[in-house]
Specification:
Layout (H helix, E strand, L loop, with lengths): L1 H17 L23 E5 L5 E5 L10 E7 L6 H8 L11 E5 L24 H15 L2 E11 L1 H10 L10 E5 L32 E5 L11 E3 L2 E3 L2 H11 L7 E2 L11 E3 L4 E5 L27 H10 L5
Parallel strand pairs: 3-4, 3-5, 5-6, 6-7, 7-12
Antiparallel strand pairs: 1-2, 2-4, 8-9, 10-11, 11-12
The structure holds 2-acetamido-2-deoxy-beta-D-glucopyranose (4 copies).
């Protein structure tokens, strides 16, 4: 007993004198290299194959401090600039200390040059799982990233793709937590309307761990990606509450939710599983295909203000998560 506590005292003294945090972070290869951009700024990057992403460094970025990072994915027909305006995760109100990386989807149909999409959606041909891995390889080589605190968020098709990242055998071990907003969780394998049963359809998933944190948002008035599912553009969309319940079951939790303590708007009920490892926030009866915000944004057009800011919830959620 005595010698054990002496050892732990000595260890914590050493850790304290070295200034090590309680959790030792996983430092990326980029630690110690001077950044090719100024903290507080954005910089555009283009890969050799032409794929684009944009990095924002927090003002307090230091090349010797392992820093958490968020990947953010725009919706279909949108782009990086639109997503920067929508998620506002580079604004000090929401985030002062996480690196943001915005990825650009491709427009695969030459007849629809602005129709950007993400892998998993019916008309997407590109390998965005590969793209995401390549972006992570690049940014962890260029910047001092805490590789145990890499997160993903996105809107609509970008949210659906965040769901696929969580279901990818490799990236589910590389990304700590996932926060899709108004996600389009297309199941392309079901391409016949009569075979699409949104409440019971099984979501294909190859997640590699059983403790995957999920925080999803969906509005009761979403007519684009309906809360109760749909057959849309040739693919099956699950009922969003069934999608969340399947996450709870994959994470080894009971399939019975408790009401969430974080919000309850209008008649909808938030579904919170376990101690919040999986949460589906019901944005409200009046909230459509929106990024929930208490102030006007491009989605809500100032007409459908939410009772909360999704971005604040997302940051609170990410702050509590890290890879095991
Ligand atoms: C990044 O590219 C966008 C257009 O794609 C442009 O508007 C923006 O100014 C660029 N940002 C920087 C920091 O160069
Ligand atoms: C799961 O793995 C199989 C076999 O590699 C693959 O065909 C399928 O697309 C994967 N599904 C997801 C959601 O990653
Ligand atoms: C959630 O709260 C509502 C209204 O208070 C109640 O009717 C419902 O049964 C609760 N659901 C759960 C799962 O606790
Ligand atoms: C929500 O975010 C906006 C900025 O986008 C801010 O003006 C507003 O005060 C925030 N609302 C709450 C309740 O914090």
């Amino acid at each position: 007993m005595l010698s054990l506590s002496l050892v732990s005292l000595t260890l914590s003294f050493i850790a304290g004198s070295l200034g090590l945090p309680q959790h030792v972070e996983s430092r990326a290869a980029g630690c110690g290299t001077s950044p090719s951009m100024t903290p507080g700024d954005f910089k555009n990057f283009t890969m050799t194959d032409g794929r684009e992403y944009r990095v924002w460094l927090p003002k307090n970025y230091k090349s010797d401090k392992a820093t958490p990072l968020i990947l953010s994915y725009h919706g279909a027909n949108r782009d990086i600039s639109h997503q920067v305006d929508l998620d506002k995760l580079t604004e000090p109100l929401f985030n002062k200390d996480y690196i943001l990386v915005y990825l650009q989807g491709t427009a695969d149909d030459p007849d629809r040059p602005t129709h950007t999409t993400w892998e998993g959606a019916p008309d997407c041909l590109s390998d965005d799982i590969k793209f995401t891995n390549e972006v992570l390889d690049a940014v962890t080589g260029d910047f001092c990233v805490d590789e145990k605190r890499i997160f993903a968020t996105g809107k609509s098709q970008g949210g659906g793709f965040v769901g696929r990242l969580a279901c990818d055998a490799g990236l589910s071990k590389r990304i700590a937590a996932f926060a899709p907003v108004s996600g389009a969780y297309y199941i392309k394998e079901i391409d016949v309307e009569s075979e699409c049963h949104p409440e019971t359809v099984v979501v294909p998933c190859n997640a590699s761990r059983k403790d995957i944190p999920i925080l999803a948002f969906h509005g009761g008035a979403d007519d684009t990606i309906k809360y109760h599912g749909d057959f849309r553009t040739g693919a099956c969309l699950p009922d969003v509450s069934s999608w969340a319940r399947q996450w709870a079951l994959r994470d080894g939790l009971s399939g019975t939710p408790s009401n969430s303590s974080i919000a309850k708007s209008d008649n909808g009920v938030n579904m919170r599983y376990g101690a919040g490892l999986v949460t589906l926030v019901y944005d409200g009866d009046n909230i459509a295909h929106d990024w929930p915000s208490t102030t006007p944004n491009d989605d809500n057009e100032g007409l459908r203000l939410a009772a909360f800011n999704a971005s604040a919830r997302i940051m609170d959620f990410f702050r509590g998560q890290r890879l095991p």
